[in-house]
Structure formats: C-alpha cells, structure tokens
C-alpha cells in the first residue's frame, strides 16, 4: 500500500471543553468506562472517528470507537470482557452485552520496516500492526471529519488535519492528495458519497473532482466490501440522498452498470421514478424503525436492469415465462461481477420479480397459490411501488388488496380481464404487449 503519511505536515489544534459541544451525556456509558479505565492505567485514551464527527454534527453516533497508545495485549489485560480480533489489524473488542467498544492502538500507515508487518509474496499484507503516534493515526484516516480525537484526560477535541472547521462548515474533505487516497482504497469514493448523504455535508470540490474519472477503480475493490458498503448506503435511512450522490458524481455506472444503462435508455424517466420511490420507502421504514430487507432493496435497485433485459429477450421471441427467468438470472450474474450479493438475498430478490406477472392471474387456484407464497408480502409491496412508474397496475393492486382478506369475494368483485380468459386466442398477443409496458 502506498504511503502518504510522511509528506503530511500536521499541526495540532486543541479545542478545549468550553469551545465544543461534545458532552459526556452523548457518549455511551460503556465507552466512557473503557476510556476512563485506560486513562487511569496511564494510557492515552480518546474517542475517535465517526462518533466524534456525529456528536459535533449534532447526530447520535451508532457506535463508539476508542483509540489508545496501549497495545491490544495491554488492553486485554485491563478488561476481562475483552477479546482480540483480526490478524492483519489486531484490534481489541470490549464486550458489554450487545454493545461492543472497539479499541484500536494508534497506527501508522508507514512502510519503513519498523513494527510488526508481514507481506506475502504476492504483495498482500498479512499483518500490519505498525503502531504509531496519534499524529500518524490521524493522517492515515480518510476524511478530516473522521480524524478528530476527543481526549478523556481533559475533554478537549484534538484536531491534526483541520477536521473541526470542516465539520462546522459541513464538508467532507479527504486528508492528503485525493487521487492518491482513492487509488489506495477505492471504497473511499463510496464513503464520500455515503457520509455526505448521511450528514447532509457537501463534498469539498477537490475531493469531489476526481470521482467520475476514477469511478472505474471500484471494479478493483473486493465485491464483498462493496456489498457491505451498499447496505450502509441504502439501508441506513439516507438511501435517496446516496443514490443521487452516486448519480451526481458519476459512480452509478461503476457500481450498477446495467441499471445505469437502463435508466439512461428509459426516456420517460418512469424507471428512475420508481427506483427513487422505492428508496424513499426504505428511508421511511428506517425512520419508523421498521425492518428493511436487502432482497427488496436489490429488487428495487436492479429492477430497471431486469426490465431492460426482459424486453430484449422478448423482442428476440423468447416466450414470457422463459424470458423472465433468464432475465432474472442474467441480471443477477452480471451484478455479481461488481457486488457480492449473497444467494440468501439474490434468490428472494428474483422471486419478487418473477411474482410480478402472477398478479394479473385471477383463476382461483392460482390466486390461492400466490397468496400462500412466502414472498407474497414483499412481491405485493413491490407491485404497489410500481404505481410510481405506471397506473397500469391499479386494478391488480385493488384486486390483491381485497384478495388478502377474502379471495373468493375478490374474484367475484374483480372479474378477470379478457386476457385472463383461459386459452382465448388473442391472449398471447395481448399479454405480450401488456408485459412490455408492465415491465416499467
Ligand atoms: P459510520 O460508522 O457512521 O458509518 P464511520 O466514519 O464511523 O461512519 P467506520 O467504517 O465505522 O465509519 O470507520 C471508523 C473510522 O475508521 C472512520 O471514521 C475513519 O477514521 C476510519 N476509516 C474507516 N474506513 C477507512 C478507510 N477506508 N480509509 C481510511 N480510514 C478509514
Ligand atoms: Mg463507525
């Protein structure tokens, strides 16, 4: 990994307690316990990273990370409820029931042969426990806003990279040379989008400028990491802002190539409207503390790609059912090149898509089967979502709303359309036409 540490000149700014708004009331009691214990044992102990940033920005942190000059082994000696994790980066986890306080030793990014570093023949870093000073630890972090330290010894905030003013001015700024930092770790491009979306911060122009040009680097990132990052981007309550950020900074084609192509080709904008509506629904569910599922999320994100693929296959004369299956498989397979979507999510995602065509079927037997399908609820919610793209589904939505209460009454109330009349000759043609628009 290239180094950027030595070239960065840092100057320490100490913001005393009476000049910043971080109060111990905002910090988890367990994190405070860890900080005090380290401090009382003669170690340096600071809250660091996202928690300090969020507290300064007036948001409630979701977890609390601690940085210290104690080694992981020393930390382990201080806490009975501590386990050491990680080979490449050794970290201490202090466990309090469901809350884990992560304690990391100040680390340097340098490669000067000091410290405990082991590199594999193929260049992979196996062990990277190069401990350093708090300054080293600050400049190896990604954004200035993420490199602030709340020091438990005097309750001051310590700022080595100008992060304090950046948080007050609400900007995300990379530490060091932006292009070099993105090349070092392309996932930082997504972190820029995600954190600015989450906090409502601007991305500083120098940090934003290289994004469209370097978007292709994302293909070098580990697909599993991209999946994790996607979940954070889209299932944490700021999915719409994240999606718009990806579009604005040219990252969408790198992350979701087929969806980006389908959106560009869809002149009416209906597919984009529906996608954004789906993400808005996700954000509302998160805000209301309702569960959200990765399968439904990816069904929304990849639906434009699925529709496009489906229409192409049908244009080639592939019959509807076969085309649906093949489109679902194709889109999933292609997306796996970039994002490692686990099968436990991709299978239900495909089921949500494949169930859509069942909603126009009104024969009693089929209605009962559809209602008892384990994916019915998600697939029906998806159908409702499709209203954002087209009013063609209103009748189906009304039917299935009634059918959930009483299938027989619903069948009587909403007689099947001509296209559902068993084997009527015009059915095929009409169905095909219906599907082509229903694909939106
Ligand atoms: P949140 O937890 O709100 O999603 P966060 O900033 O805490 O945001 P984490 O992934 O928990 O994000 O990372 C904790 C800290 O580790 C960051 O604040 C940053 O200082 C550092 N960090 C994380 N990822 C990187 C990276 N790719 N490069 C450099 N530093 C990083
Ligand atoms: Mg965090």
- DSSP E strands, number: 12
What small-molecule ligands were found?
adenosine-5'-triphosphate, magnesium ion
Strand order of the largest sheet: 1-10-9-2-3-6-5-4
Sheet with most strands? 8 strands, mixed
User: In CATH terms, what is the architecture of the largest domain?
Assistant: Orthogonal Bundle
| Ends distance | 45 Å
User: Structural class, judged by helices and strands?
Assistant: alpha+beta
The CATH topology of the largest domain is given as cca-adding enzyme, domain 2
Overall pLDDT score: 89
Low-confidence parts: 1-6, 418-438
The residue fraction in helices comes out at 40-55%
Radius of gyration of CA atoms, rounded to a whole number: 26 Å
Overview of this protein structure:
- The protein is of the alpha+beta class and 440 residues long.
- It has two domains: 157 residues, Beta Polymerase, domain 2; 162 residues, cca-adding enzyme, domain 2 (Orthogonal Bundle), CATH 1.10.3090.10.
- The protein is 50% helix and 11% strand.
- The chain contains 22 helices and twelve strands.
- The strands form three sheets. The protein has an eight-stranded mixed β-sheet with strand order 1-10-9-2-3-6-5-4. A two-stranded antiparallel sheet has the order 7-8.
- A hairpin with a 5-residue loop joins strand 7 and strand 8.
- Helix 13 packs across helix 15, helix 15 packs across helix 17 and helix 17 crosses helix 19.
- The longest helix has 22 residues.
- It is elongated.
- 37% of the residues are buried.
- The N terminus and C terminus are likely disordered.
- Bound molecules: adenosine-5'-triphosphate (ATP) and magnesium ion (MG).
- The site of adenosine-5'-triphosphate has 12 residues, from helix 7.
